[in-house]
């Protein structure tokens, strides 16, 4: 019997959440004023939960490392947010959203959690519209939708290519309302460096003021981590420069199990790497696959001609192009899920069909969409549909209206006009499905310590479908945690303020100071970035889009070795009592160097292919991911002093409402 | 590959006087972003045991609004409609001298080197930049309020402000009118925002004045330098809102 208790409520799937809400303890409004909650991170999950908990009456302290809560990296999400509204009348329902998400996650997520997510998805849209989030609308004044990968309906709500921005600013506004009322105390430019455990419960954090370098103690009755994912372990990713695993990793070291660290999303449509100086990668939204067609040349000679500049992609004849997604997956075409699209791009590029100098790029082409939209507009306006130039101009306008900011972003980076020539794209690290293990109440294995949004592992299985990260972040923050945390806090109404002058806080602060001193006093010769880049190369080459036993074993030893070298030879300039970005980075990279090893260990243990985790040894004859029934479990790792000694726990996954079958998008 | 001379504002902390320091830099590729060029400089400084240049940055894709560099006398540099992180070195040529300074405004005190404190922007939003609806999810169905597409699109355009502060930095009066008017306009254009319209504009403008931002004299530099192209129309709309709120209030 596993020691992991997922606390999934009894009863039929569709009634679990309602029943659970009716069964759990509540805290009366007067008592909520006696309870403090710390929230770390102010993205969609952290920001929305801070606002809601404050509104319910709890005293909230919120922390972010950015200079304003509005800058959390949720802001960069582009394409949209799913909800089972069925406004398009195309057969969508709560069950379908649930089904698509479990299937999309390659049957490695929890049924009950995903169903709850699908249930509350519609509330999110109502809530956001009431808050003044300006979603895209049709001419009739109603909300517009588009499609995302792995799905056969249009259920994605959007605000051009800036949906994350608009949703985050909605949550930020809700927070601002509570900050103005004194219900949220906001700590910007603060980084959490440890969790404080008192009598087995999370009772506070140690944070560093990034401007003054001061180490601060903050207590509360519960601690919530909405600190995002750990994709920056790969150095190059679509994450923000500051995104890190530190808060989650410190929680792990204090007893929170880390689940499925190897489940990483490598997003198929990002701008390819241009050189060694590169500091980050830029996503081109999946929404572009609604209208863009992905291809490479059919023949090697054309690949060579394109690479040496003697052939323009626009001059290559239709019959000489290989629209490989449409060829391999006729039912879903360009809208296959992300893991499938990424692997297919890698397969073509590995076979030598990549279209840029590095051989790692495929085309995303809008020419047929421009023509199709242009003709439609010409009909609507009663103009000549055979006038090619007119049709193209009209079509470009439609495309600009839908994706204008993305096209502009592309042009600024690559210096090519995507209205005239196809975009070049290649997969890049984008999201982590793994994270802190949580039960149905979103509590980690440490009582009183919660993880929400990307920081937890629960809803996306081995692969996340597009437009569902925003959905999960807001579902957790607005509609799930505010209920479930009450069940725990109901026992704390008589506890009183948690003192910070105790031995537990002393010990945690000492621990933080020791870590900082070690880094700052280390008279090494190499910069933090030097080590981060090397870690990134190991991760990408050996734990990336395809993994195998030999590479994973060598990654484990290389990362351990690199970590040793880091502590011997890293150089951090400046002092600890000032704004010192290098010091902050050093702490984060130190944690990535531990997480990276656990990541590889987890990938090695999982002897199957599922979603974003592809093991060369386990594939079908057609090169698709081969799941194995004996691995139908969540891996949850318990920290035991070193990543190599982490203890493996399993949570078996049961599918009672969905038949587990081969995931086919053909 | 380019060789450049950088003239960078260095200031240890808020109380330090600060000065421009020269840094020659070589081997810069035109495909590098401006911030990647600064990364190269910082790596060189660290290797020499010197303090790297502190600058704000995070998403590096033009949406978080963190980066805030005044490059050759212009907010976010020589190109329009982009942030400093989206600026690439192909906009410069070999041998150029580049001045890099922080935002300059009384309401944005320098934290260190090129980093400024923009929490005044947050306080303005806290004074009224929201709709007072509880996050219960028990509101009306989202499609129960049809909104004319034109207004919805205009509200969206106003809402794309990233709060970087380029408008303030570019204004000879350090006025925050474009920033404040963007939020006021977003809600003024939507039926959901009407209920609290009077208090919102009065409270936000009051906070803006208290923070020490200057007045608007309709020069329009803010609109030119805004990386998101927030329109001056928003300022006109806020002035109308303010006038009618004042008459009511």
Automatic annotation (TrEMBL), chain A:
Residues 36-470 form the FAD-dependent oxidoreductase 2 FAD-binding domain. SUPFAM superfamilies: FAD/NAD(P)-binding domain (SSF51905), Succinate dehydrogenase/fumarate reductase flavoprotein C-terminal domain (SSF46977), Succinate dehydrogenase/fumarate reductase flavoprotein, catalytic domain (SSF56425). Its cofactor is FAD. Keywords: Flavoprotein, Oxidoreductase. The keyword Oxidoreductase applies. Residues 532-665 form the Fumarate reductase/succinate dehydrogenase flavoprotein-like C-terminal domain. Gene3D superfamilies: FAD/NAD(P)-binding domain, Fumarate reductase/succinate dehydrogenase flavoprotein-like, C-terminal domain, Succinate dehydrogenase/fumarate reductase flavoprotein, catalytic domain. This is Succinate dehydrogenase. It comes from Winogradskyella haliclonae.
From TrEMBL, chain B:
This is Succinate dehydrogenase. Belongs to the succinate dehydrogenase/fumarate reductase iron-sulfur protein family. Its cofactor is [3Fe-4S] cluster; [2Fe-2S] cluster. Pfam families: Fer2_3, Fer4_8. Gene3D superfamilies: 3.10.20.30, Alpha-helical ferredoxin (1.10.1060.10). Residues 152-182 form the 4Fe-4S ferredoxin-type domain. Residues 2-104 form the 2Fe-2S ferredoxin-type domain. NCBIfam families: PRK07570.1 (NF005746). InterPro entries: 2Fe-2S_ferredoxin-like_sf, 2Fe-2S_ferredoxin-type, 2Fe2S_fd_BS, 4Fe4S_Fe-S-bd, Beta-grasp_dom_sf, Helical_ferredxn, SDH/FRD_Iron-Sulfur, Succ_DH/fum_Rdtase_N.
